[in-house]
Amino acid sequence: MSVRLEVWGDYALFSRPEFKTERVTYDVMTPSAARGLLEAIFWHPGLRWRIDRIHVLNPIRFDTVRRNEVDSVIRMSKIRTMAEGKGDGGVIYTSESIQQRSSTILRDVRYVIDAHFTMDPRKTSPDDSADKFQSMFMRRAGKGQYFHHPYFGTREFPAEFRLWESDDDPVGFEHGHRDLGYMFYDFDYRNPARPKPLFFRAALDDGVLDVASAEVRS
């Protein structure tokens, strides 16, 4: 069963894994980020979203921002100590822990996601059906409902959404072919203990990223 969803926002960051210290975004939304958007609206353990195409409606524009980040995660023992009133728990972050880093992000993004889903009979009940799941997604998306607010790559960049209800296909922002190089596709979770990253050679043709025909490799 297929769905078509329009998503947009002021900023986006789809991090390229080859950059370690500074965060640099891909030119367009990755398939895994698109899947995450759909799962934020409707998720079920027996349902798996598959991205077919991503239509890029707005021109690709970049911004560079600097922000303060920390180089470590707060320990639960400190939080527990403070919650139990047994002291201040010590210093959570020192000035040395805070680092200023630069990020290259996208601005003014708008996409239309074409996707379908498959069902795992091991995780669904006899009452579940593709029609039922599609109806639930369409109803939730139509009402603007979600389990957690969708976002573009990172939670600080929220995404707005609505069903694409036009009978016409979305029109990409440009004509012609644009090679995007290798892009992160998603993780292979067949071994949950060690998920394997997957990549594919991405390209825009008339502003459309064709994911369904992509040759995925690890």
UniProtKB/TrEMBL annotation:
A GO BP annotation: maintenance of CRISPR repeat elements
GO terms assigned for molecular function: endonuclease activity; hydrolase activity; RNA binding
Keyword Cytoplasm attributed: no
EC number: 3.1.-.-
Signal peptide boundaries: none
Keywords: Antiviral defense, Endonuclease, Hydrolase, Nuclease, RNA-binding
Pfam families: Cas_Cas5d (PF09704)
InterPro entries, sorted: CRISPR-assoc_prot_Cas5, CRISPR-assoc_prot_Cas5_N, CRISPR-assoc_prot_Cas5d
Task performed by this protein: CRISPR (clustered regularly interspaced short palindromic repeat) is an adaptive immune system that provides protection against mobile genetic elements (viruses, transposable elements and conjugative plasmids). CRISPR clusters contain spacers, sequences complementary to antecedent mobile elements, and target invading nucleic acids. CRISPR clusters are transcribed and processed into CRISPR RNA (crRNA).
Family to which the UniProt record says this protein belongs: Belongs to the CRISPR-associated protein Cas5 family. Subtype I-C/Dvulg subfamily.
Protein name per the record: pre-crRNA processing endonuclease
Record gene name: cas5c
